[in-house]
Design a protein that fits this description.
alpha+beta, six-stranded mixed β-sheet
Length: 335
């Protein structure tokens, strides 16, 4: 019979332990020494991005550049190239492009902690493991989406919001804190196309546009001329990330997490604010408007010091920044 060499790694046998060939497998309790954090981390990340709105609407090009809280990502923005009038025989001007930089700080984090009696037993039951990782991902999505929406919804250009929105015409009333727009089934399409026109006047590309509405607006849309699924460009049911289809170049998402509140009060992410005149945000934009980076930084297991079993915990770090204010528009709607 062979012996176990300290520090060596062996295949996991039926008893749940790493033993060399020929070694008698122990069939007792399996401990957390063989917990596989990468497995949990991978499943959690996969489910998180399937659920989150910001995994869909934001620019995530710098996702792989972060590893820990406190990281800084330097983003180079595209410089504006001048166009000159040409005449035969003239001397040509040559610009030296000098891109500006935007700093994306990875300065936020959310975590979860789960007390399980036997991590290895949990990992041997895929359905049970899926249940834990799916719920952790959904709760993480809710917490982060709420934070990011609240931190970016009103950071667009001044010409993309207010009672005189439109960088060229100033002709669109997108509502104000004191005078939000009352949306109805009869006017909701007009207001959505107003958001689209505001982005047009800011020269925002037509592709990769998005719109975040509440269930209230979705219900109004279903009473409007877009009641049939084919008119919304998507005959499928609503996915976990809230996508319901397309309207006037917008991919439309439904969320309960858009900021709301009473006039004159600080915008919040809950319905607890009081006041006679309440309002909520309807947000539109382009994928270049907001940069978002998130990373499941760590998932680990440790022995419960106060009871039998193990503790599983995970940390998600993230950061966000409005990098193109002209690509974010806001409509203030009355509740």
């Amino acid at each position: 019979m062979s012996t176990i060499t300290p520090g060596a790694v062996y295949p996991i046998n039926a008893g749940g332990f790493n033993t060399p060939a020929g070694q008698v497998a122990y069939s007792g309790t399996a401990y957390s020494g063989t917990f596989i954090p990468a497995l949990w981390s991978g499943k959690l990340a996969q489910k998180f991005y399937a659920a989150t709105v910001f995994g869909e609407i934001a620019n995530t090009d710098w996702q792989g550049d972060i590893s820990q809280m406190g990281d800084t990502v330097i983003i180079n923005t595209i410089p504006t190239i001048n166009i000159y009038q040409y005449s035969i025989g003239q001397s040509l001007n040559y610009d030296v492009p000098s891109p500006n930089t935007i700093t994306l700080q990875i300065n936020k984090g959310k975590y979860f902690g789960v007390n399980v009696n036997n991590v290895l037993e949990l990992q041997s039951k895929p359905k049970l493991m899926d249940m834990f990782t799916n719920d952790a991902a959904m709760q993480m999505k809710i917490a982060i989406d709420r934070d990011v929406l609240l931190g970016t919804f009103n950071q667009g250009s001044a010409s993309n919001m207010g009672a005189t929105a439109g960088a060229i015409s100033g002709a669109y009333n997108l509502g104000t804190d004191a005078a939000p727009v009352s949306l109805t089934a009869a006017n909701i399409l007009q207001n959505i196309t107003a958001l689209s026109s505001v982005l047009d006047e800011s020269n925002v590309p037509e592709t990769d546009r998005w719109l975040i509405i509440t269930p209230t607006e979705r219900q109004l849309l279903l009473q409007s001329n877009l009641a049939q699924a084919q008119f919304m460009g998507d005959g499928q049911s609503v996915l976990r990330n809230g996508r319901i289809g397309q309207i006037d170049r917008f991919t439309v998402y439904v969320s309960n997490l858009t900021p709301r509140g009473a006039a004159g009060q600080v915008w919040g992410a809950t319905t607890a604010e009081s006041g006679a005149l309440k309002r909520h945000a309807v947000i539109a934009g382009h994928k270049s408007g907001i940069s978002f980076a998130s990373q499941i930084a760590k998932v680990e297991s440790l022995q419960n010091p106060n009871d039998f079993g193990n503790l599983v915990r995970g940390l998600n770090i993230y950061g966000y920044q409005v990098t193109q204010p002209s690509a974010v528009a806001l409509l203030v709607a009355a509740n």
